[in-house]
Write a structure and sequence with these properties.
Layout lengths: L1 H8 L2 E6 L7 H17 L1 E6 L1 H8 L6 H15 L7 E4 L5 H10 L4 H5 L2 H9 L8 H15 L5 E4 L4 H18 L5 H11 L2 H17 L2 H12 L6 H11 L11 E4 L27 H9 L20 H9 L2 H12 L5 H27 L2 H29 L6
Parallel strand pairs: 1-2, 2-3, 4-5
Bound molecules: tryptophan and iron/sulfur cluster.
Iron/sulfur cluster binds next to α15, α16 and α17.
Length: about 400
């Protein structure tokens, strides 16, 4: 039931990434592969969080435009398809800022101060002065990013779950304060009638069974009935959902985090792959560079000579086998390592082949997009417009709910 509601009612997915320039295999396995899957199943919005980059890098913003371009090319190269997903840039949809401002009016300071990343990041990025208003407010900006698209699902890593949780709290508070229209009951009843005689009658019956007897099945049935209405507006539908549950109209639905499993992608040294560790394979590294990096990556330090047996558990190459090799190859590598019947270079070869094979189509697409900057610009322009359309619609409702339609 929950899944059904999610699928139909919250079929929109939104996620963002800070512009970090060219991406690497860690991003691919941790995020992009997942996005590529999601774009086939949901109405996906993926955006470049350039304002978020400013919350920490406000002193050196000049690299941001280049980082955006490179990152978007890598998204496209990884298989994000602009025909399926909308790709856009946060700052090109200024409505995010307006919603951020309006939400800031109702967000208690303590909620932001309590977000775990607030203190953590200040500690971690000691060299920057992060005692700013923008930095404190950045999880709320993220809430605005999500709520403005009424996204139901937000694919994020573990570190971002608290932000989605904050988003839910803010949405709940917003709906609580502004969700009840003055003439809500009348509007709900009018909406009910717009469904046509038969459905209107059914809805009333289910509503009664649920509100008077707590009949859960009636609630489910009523929801299903609403889902299937083609000829009433989204707003009317939400009124009817709200009326069912005795709340007001849900203006900003609460999103769910869609937890992406932590990427198992190790770096060349066995630590997590990350630019700051200098252990990455970038998606656009030349095949020769990739091959050399893998050939020279460290192995089990106990295998000094070819005749010394090794232990895969102590070897970063083994972690690559776990991602890239099938059972047969893994068996061969593990046996060969423990019995010293294969050398490390031999052991690395299937990994090298597999990584190069994975990167090949990505790099081909990247080259094609690099050669057509105009196309990339158009893709983003189009995404910006589509995002703006949705964002503007939400803002109309939000302004209305907050009595900002004065004339
Ligand atoms: N804060 C996220 C990060 O640092 C990026 C982000 C901004 C985001 N807005 C978002 C992610 C909205 C998901 C939804 O990675
Ligand atoms: Fe690592 Fe393979 Fe060498 Fe064993 S044989 S140490 S698993 S590279």
């Amino acid at each position: 039931m929950i899944l059904n509601t999610l699928l139909s009612q919250h079929a929109r997915v939104l996620s963002g990434m800070r512009p970090t320039g060219r991406l690497h295999l860690g991003h691919y396995h941790g995020v992009l592969k997942n996005w590529v899957e999601l774009q086939h199943q949901y109405d996906c919005f993926f955006f470049v969080a350039d304002w978020h980059a400013l919350t920490t890098h406000y002193e050196d913003p000049s690299i941001i435009p280049e980082s955006i371009r490179e990152m978007v090319i890598d998204w496209l190269a990884a298989g994000i398809n602009h025909g399926e997903a909308k790709l856009f840039i946060q700052s090109q949809v200024p409505e995010h800022a307006e919603l951020h401002l309006l939400l800031s009016m109702i967000t208690p300071l303590g909620w932001l101060e309590r977000v775990p990343s607030y203190k953590d990041q200040q500690e971690r990025l000691k060299e920057r002065d992060l005692a700013t208003y923008g930095f404190l407010g950045y999880p709320l900006l993220q809430a605005a990013d999500i709520l403005i698209y009424k996204a139901g699902l937000v694919p994020v890593g573990e570190d971002q779950v608290a932000h989605v949780e904050l988003t839910r709290e803010v949405a709940r508070r917003f709906n609580h304060i502004y969700g009840r229209e003055a003439n809500f009951e009348t509007l709900a009843d009018q909406a009910r009638k717009k469904m046509g005689k038969k459905s209107a009658k059914l809805y009333s019956r289910y509503h009664k069974a649920y509100t008077e007897q707590g009949d859960q099945e009636a609630l489910d049935a009523a929801r299903a009935l609403l889902e299937n209405q083609q000829n009433i507006t989204v707003n009317d539908k939400e009124r009817l959902f709200g009326y069912l549950e005795g709340s007001g109209r849900l203006i900003l639905p609460e999103p769910q985090p869609l937890l992406t499993k932590a990427s198992k992608m190790p770096g060349l040294d066995g630590q997590k792959m990350s630019k700051s560790y200098g252990n990455i394979i970038a998606l656009r590294d030349e095949p020769e560079v990739v091959e050399k990096a893998l050939r020279t990556m460290p192995t089990d330090t106990n295998r000094v000579r070819r005749s010394d047996p090794g232990d895969p558990a102590r070897c970063p190459v083994w972690q690559f086998h776990e991602i890239y090799s099938d059972d047969g190859v893994r068996e061969w590598a593990s046996e060969g390592c423990k019995t010293a019947s294969i050398g490390c270079l031999e052991c690395k070869q299937p990994v090298i082949d597999a990584v190069l094979k994975e990167l090949k189509p990505i790099q081909e697409r990247a080259r094609s997009f690099e050669a057509q900057p105009e196309l990339v610009r158009n893709i983003i322009e189009e995404g910006n417009e589509e995002a703006r359309d949705v964002a503007q619609e939400t803002m109309e409702e939000v302004r209305h709910a907050m009595s900002l339609r004065h004339f």
